[in-house]
Design a protein that fits this description.
mainly alpha, 3 helices
Length: 102
């Protein structure tokens, strides 16, 4: 779950960066995936508990990482809106080969 969320987040911010240099359209912010949260919590609850039933340090770090990724997702709307306004002011993106570094 964390790897998939990280890949989606990286792709979104890479596409957003391409917009900042005038090479692509402003990407739509990602939507919240509540089922992904549930799957992560279920996996952590099942696989990362200590013998006494408490969450391990690894479980806590995984949940924290998931929350951090969700915070980065929530920030997308606040940066996409001004970028969209800027894109409207600049006009259409010129047609040319687009190559965004990986």
């Amino acid at each position: 779950e964390l790897q998939a969320a990280t890949e989606m987040m990286t792709r979104w911010y890479r596409d957003f960066a391409a917009r900042l240099v005038g090479r692509a359209a402003v990407p739509a912010p990602l939507t919240h995936d509540a089922s992904a949260d549930s799957r992560l919590v279920a996996a952590v609850s099942q696989d990362l508990r200590s013998a006494d039933g408490d969450a391990t340090a690894t479980a806590v770090r995984m949940i924290w990482t998931g929350d951090h990724l969700d915070a980065a997702r929530r920030l997308q709307a606040s940066v996409a809106e001004p970028a969209l306004f800027d894109a409207l002011q600049r006009g259409p993106i010129p047609r040319r080969s687009i190559r965004v570094p990986q």
